[in-house]
Each structure stands twice: as C-alpha cells, then as structure tokens.
Design a protein that fits this description.
Layout: E1 3-7, E2 10-13, E3 18-25, E4 33-39, E5 46-52, E6 58-60, E7 68-73, E8 78-83, E9 92-98, E10 101-102, E11 106-111
Parallel strand pairs: 2-11
Antiparallel strand pairs: 1-3, 3-8, 4-5, 4-9, 5-6, 7-8, 9-10, 9-11
Length: about 110
C-alpha cells in the first residue's frame, strides 16, 4: 500500500522559513517525479516544485523560484521542501504527489 505523508507545516511570520517533508512508502519511485502542489480554498491546486526520484532535475514555479528548494533523501524515502522568505500569498495546504498518489496535505500559514 502506497502512502505519502506530509509534515512540517505550521504558522510562521512573513519572511520566516519552514521545511516540509513527504515520507513515501509502499513501493519505489525510480523514474518518477515527486511534486509539491499547494491549494487555497476555492482555487485549483497549483504546482510548486518537482524533483526526479532518481537522477537529477528540479523544477519550480516562478512564484517560488529562489525562495524554495526541493530535495530528496533516497535512503529515507523522503522528499523535502525548504521554504524561505515566506510571504502571506504562500499560505495554502501543501501536498506531495507521485504517479497517481497524493498525500493528505499539510497546512502552511504565513502571517503578515
């Protein structure tokens, strides 16, 4: 059974930092991208960042480029999203996804 479990969300002030984690279990994901999306109530899910599970390659939405960094620890089957210089507009539920699987999401709230 595949599981993706996000953690690390919370409340932070503008300019602060958070690190999200996505722990994957149940199968290997070689050859797949693991992605972070975010969603605000009433809006569609928005792509944030992606990383190849094996090999090189990272991708970012323009809105987070230079502030967010996606990385992985294959030994721990975990993908991270380091979020710096947070802005109120980064407030959302953040989800990780790979193949057809999605996590349950973790709330990030940035106060102004």
């Amino acid at each position: 059974q595949v599981q993706l479990v996000e953690s690390g969300g919370g409340l932070v002030q503008t300019g602060g930092s958070l690190r999200l984690s996505c722990a994957a279990s149940g199968r290997t994901f070689d050859g797949y991208f693991i992605e972070w999306f975010r969603q605000v109530p009433g809006k569609e899910r928005e792509f944030v960042a992606a990383i190849m599970w094996s090999g090189i390659g990272t991708y970012y939405a323009d809105s987070v480029k230079g502030r967010f960094t996606i990385s992985r620890d294959n030994a721990e089957n975990t993908v991270y999203l380091q979020m710096n210089s947070l802005k109120p507009e980064d407030t959302a539920v953040y989800y990780c996804t790979v193949d057809i699987y999605w996590g349950q999401g973790t709330q990030v709230t940035v106060s102004s």
